[in-house]
Design goal:
Blueprint: H1 2-15, E1 25-26, H2 35-42, H3 54-65, E2 85-87, E3 93-95, E4 103-109, H4 114-129, E5 134-140, H5 147-157, E6 163-165, H6 168-171, E7 182-183, E8 185-189, E9 195-200, H7 205-218
Parallel strand pairs: 4-5, 5-6
Antiparallel strand pairs: 1-7, 2-3, 4-8, 8-9
């Protein structure tokens, strides 16, 4: 099926000297998560392009976002207050309890996805501008064996917030945030942990900041 072929298309594109994945990609089926990179290497590819000209890529994302009227994407929002607990790459706990009392932004990303790179850079800039308490982390939707790739991703982009690998339940769409089949997906939680906003795919920094303000007012 088309979904089962997504990982293979990425590897074939790298082997043929192609441009790699598009800005917005669908996460591959559960059993194939994280195999895109391995197949790309086996085929002689260059692996995920960690270092990109972000300004040019961001311009493409903004152009894509501006191509039609804005429609809030929180129709995909999971109800209630998700209870989550992940372990950051540095070993620290990232949980609903540790983030209680702070607005929290979670970016669900993949190391091989260009759109994910744009979103985390936008979040880094937002974090630098925010003067009020704000928790932020990236959740890598790949198996634990890809942790070295995530570490290289974070180091290369000099991210000012932690990354954590998704656990098995999250990879199998049974985690606290429900089914996530698009990367990047950006989630904003209020101070009491209620999910206020969720957006799949490319997003403007201004939209994320608007969601953060909504979360502050909802708390």
């Amino acid at each position: 099926s088309p979904r089962e072929r997504r990982g293979e298309q990425f590897a074939e594109g790298e082997a043929a000297g192609g441009q790699g994945p598009p800005l917005l990609v669908r996460a591959s089926p559960r059993e194939r998560r994280g195999e895109q990179f391995a197949e790309g290497e086996a085929a002689g590819g260059q692996g995920p392009p960690f270092l990109i000209v972000v300004s040019a890529l961001a311009a493409l994302v903004i152009a894509g976002c501006a191509s039609g009227p804005y429609r809030p994407a929180d129709d995909a929002r999971a109800p209630g207050r998700p209870h989550y607990e992940y372990v950051a790459l540095d070993g620290k706990s990232l949980s609903s309890e540790s983030n209680r009392g702070k607005v929290t932004v979670i970016a669900v990303i993949a190391t091989y996805d260009l759109g994910s790179q744009v979103v985390v850079r936008q979040l880094a800039e937002i974090k630098a501008r925010q003067r009020r308490a704000l928790s932020m982390f990236g959740l890598v939707l790949e198996p634990p064996k890809n942790a070295p790739l995530a570490e290289a991703f974070a180091a290369t982009l000099e991210l000012p917030f932690p990354l954590a690998m998704a656990d098995q339940a999250t990879l199998e769409a049974g985690g606290p945030f429900g089914a996530i089949d698009t990367v990047p997906t950006t989630i904003v939680l209020s101070k009491d942990g209620t999910e206020i906003w969720r957006h799949q795919g490319a997003v403007l920094a201004s939209e994320i900041e608007e969601a953060i303000e909504r979360a502050r007012k909802a708390s």
